[in-house]
Structures are given as structure tokens and as C-alpha cells.
Write a structure and sequence with these properties.
Elements: H1 3-26, H2 33-40, H3 44-48, H4 54-77, H5 83-104, H6 106-116, H7 120-138, H8 147-157, H9 159-162, H10 164-169, H11 176-193, H12 200-205, H13 214-222, H14 224-227
Length: 230
């Protein structure tokens, strides 16, 4: 009795893979179910037994793109490293994955964004998931009452390095070096605001805190409006 389910899953995967190939071949300009059916040697109604419409297939393609990013983010958050290291790794990893896709084929990258744009529910779910990862990291230093605000601040400040449209619009700005500057400023800002929540292990585990002491933290608080990236 399990065989039909296995066959259905296999066919569904085949449809998804062919759809992906067609997107690449056409530069994202064309993806219709009849083309998939022709390549598989089946009728178009057969495709509808697995996907109710083209939008449902697009949604799966977009979902898989986000799943790769989310799994990478979850792996980073699961480590025992200091929050500063995890925040840095999270942003840099997202930049590395997305920038690599852009550099492989800029036209295809933009075309795929257009294909995914109608699926706001998937995009919003991904953003909410990313917000949750940042919240999880910041829990180590930010009090619960301010977690949402600080997580949004981090996402806003790093949009140039993680939002695909921003990377496509200004790829010359989406560099690891520039990302590191912004991340370092964010970490410094958070430490200056919430230094009382830092433990000794937090300070020792991050080289940037090697000379940290109460006086310097107090001085940083008076300058925090100048540190926040814009």
C-alpha cells in the first residue's frame, strides 16, 4: 500500500527538478506547466494531480530556497559560541549564500526574485523565522522586554547583506568587509546598552571585549547614538 505514495513523491520531485531546470534555462523568464509536461513526456493534466496550479509549484521552489538559509541559521544558533560570534556568523553566512547565487547568474537571480514575489506568505514566514533566530542569539545579552526591538534593529541595519533585492540593487555594497563593519558596530552598540547583562565568559570569548571595563562601557553609553548604523 505504501508504493503509490513513494511513486507520487518521486514524480513530485521530478516535476520540481524539471521546473528548476526550466527556470535556469530561460533565465527565469518562462515557466509554464505545459513545458514541464512536454519534458516529462506526460499530459499537462497529469502535472495538476501533483500541483494544483503554477503558483503552487513556484511556492515550493521559493520554499526550498529559504529552507537552505534557515537550516544554516539554525545550525549557527545551536553552537555553544558566544552571542557575538553567532550574530556575526549568521549575517555573514546569509550574505555568502545569497551573494554566491547572485554572482553565479545575476539575471537569473533577479528573475527568481520576481517569480517568488507573489508569495508574500512564504517571504514573511522566512523573515519571521530569521527574526526568531536573531532573538534567540540576543537573549544572551538583551532583556526580554527589548528583544523584539533589538532584533528588528539588527535586521534593519543588515538588510544590505541579507535581503536579495538589496544585494541585486547594489552588489558592490554587499561585501563581507562592509558587513563586518556594520556587525562590529551593532555588537558594540548592544554591549554599551546592555553591558550589565554580560557575563565574564561573554567578555573573554569575544576578542573585541578584551579591554572592556565599567568605565569604557559607561563612556560608550554616552555615544550610543553615534554608533548605531543607519
Amino acid at each position: 500500500m505504501a508504493r503509490p505514495r513513494i511513486d507520487a513523491d518521486r514524480v513530485k520531485e521530478q516535476i520540481i527538478e524539471i521546473a528548476r531546470e526550466l527556470v535556469i534555462e530561460s533565465g527565469g523568464k518562462r515557466l509554464v506547466l505545459s513545458d514541464i509536461a512536454d519534458r516529462m513526456g506526460v499530459s499537462q493534466p497529469y502535472i495538476y494531480t501533483h500541483f494544483k496550479n503554477k503558483q503552487a509549484l513556484f511556492a515550493v521552489l521559493a520554499e526550498r530556497w529559504f529552507t537552505e538559509l534557515e537550516e544554516a541559521g539554525q545550525a549557527i544558533c545551536a553552537t555553544e559560541r558566544a552571542w557575538q560570534c553567532k550574530l556575526r556568523d549568521l549575517i555573514q553566512t546569509f550574505l555568502t549564500i545569497k551573494k554566491a547565487e547572485y554572482e553565479r547568474d545575476p539575471a537569473l537571480f533577479v528573475a527568481c526574485l520576481e517569480l517568488a514575489s507573489p508569495h508574500r506568505d512564504i517571504v514573511e514566514r522566512h523573515v519571521a523565522h530569521l527574526h526568531g533566530l536573531v532573538r534567540q542569539i540576543l537573549t544572551e545579552i538583551v532583556p526580554p522586554s527589548q528583544l523584539n526591538t533589538m532584533a528588528h534593529m539588527v535586521l534593519d541595519a543588515t538588510s544590505a547583506f541579507r535581503v536579495p533585492y538589496e544585494i541585486a540593487r547594489a552588489p558592490e555594497r554587499a561585501t563581507p568587509e562592509r558587513a563586518e563593519e556594520v556587525i562590529a558596530a551593532l555588537i558594540h552598540y548592544l554591549e554599551s546598552c546592555f553591558a550589565e547583562n554580560l557575563t565574564t565568559s561573554d567578555i573573554l570569548s569575544d576578542p573585541s571585549n578584551a579591554d572592556a571595563h565599567p568605565a569604557s562601557n559607561q563612556a560608550s553609553r554616552t555615544q550610543k547614538t553615534d554608533i548605531l548604523p543607519v
